[in-house]
Amino acid sequence: MVFDTSAEVPVQKFGTFLGVFTPSILTILGLIMYLRFGWVVGNIGLGLTILLVLLASSITFITAFSASAVATNMRVGVGGEYFMISRSLGLELGGAIGIPLFLCRTLSITFYSFGLVESILAFWPATWGEMPAYTGQLGAAIIIIAITTVSGKSAALALKLQIPIMMAVGASLIALVIGAIIGGLQAPELSPTYRTAPQGFWYVFAVFFPAVTGFTAGIGMSGDLKDPRRSIPRGTLLAVITGTVIYLFIPIILSLTAKVTPEELAAPGIIWTKIAVLGGWLVFPGLWGAILSSAFGSMLGAPRVLQALADDGLAPGFLARLSPSGQPTIATWISGAIALGAVVLGGLNAVAQFVTILFLTLYVTVNISAAIEKLVGDPSYRPTINVPWYVSLLGSVGAVVMMFLINPYACMTAIFLEAALYLYLRRRALRQQWGDVWAGLWMAVARFALLNLRTQSRNPRNWRPHILLFAGDPVKRLNLVRLAAWFNQNRGVVTVCQLVVGDLKDKHHDAELRRQEMERDLEDAGLVAFADVDVVESFESGVINVTQANGIAGLRSNTVMFGWPRRLERLESQLKIMRGVSNAGKSTVIARVNWAHEPGREKRIDLWWGGRQHNGDLMLLFAYLLSLNPEWRDARIVIRAIARSEDERKEQEAGLKALLPEIRINAETQIIVKPPDQTLAEVIQHTSRGAAVVFFGLMEPEPGTEAEYARRLTALVEPLNTTIFVRNAGEFAGRLI
Hints:
Elements: H1 16-28, H2 31-35, H3 37-71, H4 81-89, H5 91-120, H6 135-151, H7 155-160, H8 162-182, H9 201-208, H10 216-219, H11 228-256, H12 262-266, H13 272-275, H14 280-311, H15 329-341, H16 348-376, H17 389-406, H18 408-427, H19 437-455, E1 467-470, H20 478-488, E2 494-501, H21 504-524, E3 530-536, H22 539-549, E4 559-563, H23 568-583, E5 587-592, E6 604-608, H24 616-628, E7 636-643, H25 646-663, E8 668-673, H26 680-688, E9 693-697, H27 706-717, E10 722-727
Parallel strand pairs: 1-2, 1-4, 2-3, 4-5, 6-7, 6-9, 7-8, 9-10
Antiparallel strand pairs: 5-10
């Protein structure tokens, strides 16, 4: 029977030594040390072996420091590295690395099981004949089943057994040293021979590298520690340092002893029994104990990653359930089943490459997490262990290089897998309840950009449309917001503002709730825009005040946009506001959105030209930006003007034809001679009735004449489709094109 994680389950907690250092050091001083260290020395010689150890250990050492820095800045929960990454880089990236991490730990179970079988089969009696080919895989499968069964019962038992195991490992190391000394010394072989590893140095590196990844075993037990913030850095770094010192010492002993030849070292197997005093009597207990400890560590860590993924909604919820003893039983059995299936991969060396690549992808992400946290400099990032960002970044680069050199195909596959997982999780629009580093990163980037924009010289060439749209309820005026986004065309900033007339003291809370609702509405509609709700005393003064205050540095709004009002009085108000906005150096757009053109008909954008200085430059720029949008790429831009005589028509036509090559905008021109029996409005209406969008310039009416001007505009647009009035009052009026 299992229980949900929400129930109170008494779980034993562990300290630094038993919970972190012991499982980490026993996983480091494990399978590879006993079974493959002699093979490494016999193939690449003492010199390259020392280089290999330093290279592998430097990556893990940097990663251990990065992981420790992140761990000291948070209370690490269940899931170890996954927990730290997801709380630092976000749930999507956490999930993208958490799933491979789970597979990595699960494959490690298979890896250690193969190693244990290989060491046991060394006792295969010759009288039994030749060993069947399937013996290793069958033995690994039996060991996996046994480990899964025990791990599902009790983590405490597995961890407490590590003390006698550590003593056995220590005894085997001492026996190796004594045996090497009493057996005489010889000159070490320094050059590589690749006797049994013709694939080369990086193949040897791939087989050896899992030996130094054991420091993550303690981090994986983060949910079972009394004080993860204290225990993880202390236990992890001590284990890495201890393991590195021992790994630098062992190849010297193996290459100097006269008890074995270089050829014997290069043969896969347990060469230690030929060197150590008392032979296998001291070596095998340490070997078996270390392998079992590593296998149990992986079996305890993998289900806890799966449990953490389930807690965060990245895996089915039932995987997070605990047994009465506090073990994630279901996750444990699933981990065991996957490890059992991985037996078909083959022997020890084949599984080692898969484990190596997956571990290295984890190291890349851990180091990136620490580097970004340090670079961003969020006030909340206050680790007690400070690692320079470039050191963590160097660890990431080193891990990527190692992945590529070991197996470029596996490297690209791993990157593709994690990228695919990230994109999938992004599409699920996961929402976490904690802050991550990305908010701080974008804040730092924005601050840097704003400081540089502040000092840049202003020039028409750098003008971009930063539109402040007063749209009221964006849900009811989505077409208006979409039009503003089309004008923006990802080149500026659109802010959709709603004004609430009233007292700030009474309306502030409601305004904030409304802003959040607007953000959701805009996101649901797929519109990229900021939402803003302001409490003002009156509409007209409020618009002018908000307009002056909106934006910062080079991202201040330069264009105020309104929708077409239903009441004539509101249009009069907008014209009055336009005067104040113009005085503040802001342009004005009033748009009447009416997509009445028939589907399938040619889209045409008519622009009634009055000259660059009479709003023409901004109108033409907006028409051009509109035509860049996928929905308007097939639209024709036609610049139209009205002449009073044929001579005037020729003059205007010549001017426009000279202008078009200069402004590099694909447009047509048409100059119409006004018939004497038609008004200007009638000519415009007759000509542009079939256009999808019509642009007009706005003049600034004299005070007191706004009502009359509003009536004329209303009469003008009545038979037209979408109509856009533009008033260019910015500092670059007449120079934008």
